[in-house]
């Protein structure tokens, strides 16, 4: 669609946001309420996500479970945020 | 902004006449909300309120300074910036004009 907007100078498209947070520490919340915090290695248009040094949070509290590399299938992702 | 489409229509006398219909695309409405605080309702009875900074054709949205509210009114956040998956979005409404 057209990107013409009076607010175009402050606009951050999803694709721009994603390319800007590669390599950052991110929090990924799933539809089931579980969050994963880790370094974002890769993400695609389906919101499939690969992270490393990942910690699991259930109901906002650390579950104590840690993972090395994690692949999350995009259909489970509610949001991804920079931390 | 609003596009004007001309559609032929038939009136009660059976005579063809040109009727102008003003259309506003749904995504134009969202585009006009960029930079404003919006509330995004999900299909799961959750809602996210924050400043809309961008979206795409799937209505994935980028929000700033976001608070998350569940169906019982419990809030979470604020989160500085997030990309919210469009798959669960039911409605977006601007909370300022």
Automatic annotation (TrEMBL), chain A:
It comes from the Eukaryota. One of its GO terms (biological process) is maturation of SSU-rRNA. One of its GO terms (molecular function) is RNA binding. Residues 13-83 form the Sm domain. Pfam families: LSM (PF01423). Gene3D superfamilies: 2.30.30.100. It is found in: Cytoplasm; Nucleus. Belongs to the snRNP Sm proteins family. SmF/LSm6 subfamily. PANTHER family: SMALL NUCLEAR RIBONUCLEOPROTEIN F SNRNP-F, U6 SNRNA-ASSOCIATED SM-LIKE PROTEIN LSM6. This is U6 snRNA-associated Sm-like protein LSm6.
From TrEMBL, chain B:
Its main location: nucleus. One of its GO terms (cellular component) is spliceosomal complex. Keywords: mRNA processing, mRNA splicing, Nucleus, Ribonucleoprotein, RNA-binding, Spliceosome. It is found in: Nucleus. PROSITE patterns: SM. Belongs to the snRNP Sm proteins family. This is Sm domain-containing protein. It comes from Candida tenuis (strain ATCC 10573 / BCRC 21748 / CBS 615 / JCM 9827 / NBRC 10315 / NRRL Y-1498 / VKM Y-70).
């Amino acid at each position: 669609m057209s990107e013409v907007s009076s607010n175009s100078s402050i606009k951050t498209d999803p694709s721009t946001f994603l390319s800007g947070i590669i390599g950052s520490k991110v929090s990924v919340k799933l539809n089931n309420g579980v969050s994963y915090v880790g370094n974002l290695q890769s993400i695609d248009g389906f919101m499939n996500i690969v992270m490393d040094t990942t910690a699991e949070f259930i109901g906002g509290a650390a579950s104590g479970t840690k993972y090395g590399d994690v692949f999350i299938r995009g259909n489970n992702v509610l949001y991804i945020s920079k931390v | 902004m609003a596009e004007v489409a001309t559609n032929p229509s038939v009136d009660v006398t059976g005579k063809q006449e040109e009727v102008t219909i003003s259309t506003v695309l749904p995504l134009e409405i969202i585009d006009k909300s960029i930079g404003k605080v919006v509330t995004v309702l999900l299909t799961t009875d959750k809602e996210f309120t924050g400043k809309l900074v961008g979206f795409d054709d799937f209505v994935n949205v980028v929000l700033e300074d976001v608070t998350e509210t569940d169906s019982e009114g419990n809030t979470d956040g604020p989160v500085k910036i997030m990309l919210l998956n469009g798959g669960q979005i039911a409605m977006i409404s601007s909370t300022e004009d």
